[in-house]
Amino acid sequence: LIVAEIDEDKYFIPALLPSENKEDIRNESLSVESSTVPLLFLFSDKCTPSGLFCAVVVKLLAKGWTVDLKEKVYCNIVSLIYKKIKPNLAICVIDSFKYFEVYCSRENNLPEIKKEMEDVINSVIISRKYKCEQPKIAFFCSCSECKVATIEENGDLCCCHKSYSLEDMEQERKWIRGVVGATCSVSASKATCTARTTVSTTPLAISFCDRPQLHQLHRLEGDGGQVVKVMEIVAPVWEDLALALQFSGSCIDTIERDSLRKTKTACRMCLQQWLQGKEGLRRPISWQTLVDCLREMELTDLATDLQAALSP
Question: Which of 90, 119, 92 is nearest to 103 (CA)?
């Protein structure tokens, strides 16, 4: 068993938790839903080594991450937050039994999280003497046979049938940019990425320039500790939000039908389609758009609280 001490007299034993299919909880676990694609760690024998996932989780806990107890926790799915940074940085790690999936709450911190996960996984493989090679970086692809494509030495993504230029894949490129030839780390005060010729600092505060992500609309914690729950307040009037975001009447009817008239589900579906850039929607995907929509809906207090929670 792999045991991690969380607080005094409290322990976390991931190996004893039940397992779950990620697809069965995708609609419940907001941490795994992100406007960015997940990063995959693909193992050479097409199967994750037994016990490695639990060891990686414990290693992350030792580095300052904590289990997000607001989300369901399984032996193969865990959401983690970094509380030493305000607002908290969140990730979700999934053992899909063929590869690890990593989701991150912040687009501007994707390279740092990639480096952090690489270091942790490789460290565990070495320290626990796993007889496996270090995993390859990969992403989901459109190929129906292999379903994943790995990054080759030339920088392209390749699967069993075709290759993809990383330059043509905006979301995947965000995980890689700034990592080659750099040393990245998440520290208690900031995340830094130091390249051979330049030094750049990536702030962890959420700003209006960031792209909103679904779990942040479920719960957003500002620099001052204030908590804003946009989805909870907007759910009863989600149709007004859809109209403010310029959804068509037929699209609103479809959401209402597919959600079985459950307002929370409908609100989540509406926001998810907006964040995914549903065809026909003309309003930009930004925090400013959301704040403007809330004011148009006369939810002035919520708009003010949301604006206060975001850094300038």
Answer: 92
| Helix or strand holding residue 242 (H, E) | helix 238-244
> Which helix (H) or strand (E) is 102 found in, with range?
strand 99-104
Distant-in-sequence, close-in-space partners of 8: CB < 8 Å, separation ≥ 6: none
- The number of angstroms, rounded, from the C-alpha of 295 to the middle of its chain's C-alpha atoms is 28
CA 105-108-113 angle, to 5 degrees, is 65
Tokens of 243: 């109209």
Lowest mean pLDDT among 56-60, 120-124, 224-228: 224-228
Q: How far is CA 174 from CA 108, 113, 186, in A?
A: 8, 11, 17
Which among 177, 62, 80 is positioned nearest to 120, based on CA atoms? 62
> Residue type at 143?
C
**What distance in Å separates the CA atoms of residue 9 and residue 11, rounded to the nearest whole number?**
7
Cβ-based burial of 165 (10 A; exposed 0-12, middle 13-18, buried ≥19): exposed
d(CA 78, CA 25): 12
Instruction: Give backbone dihedrals phi and psi of 216, rounded to 5 degrees, phi first.
Output: -70, -30
pTM passes above 0.85: no
Q: Report the pLDDT value the prediction gives residue 93, as an integer from 0 to 100.
A: 92
3-state helix, strand, coil in the chain (%, to 5): 35, 20, 45
State residue 261's pLDDT score. 86
Q: Does an H or E element contain 103, and which?
A: strand 99-104
Give the range with max mean pLDDT: 29-38, 276-285, 302-311.
Answer: 302-311
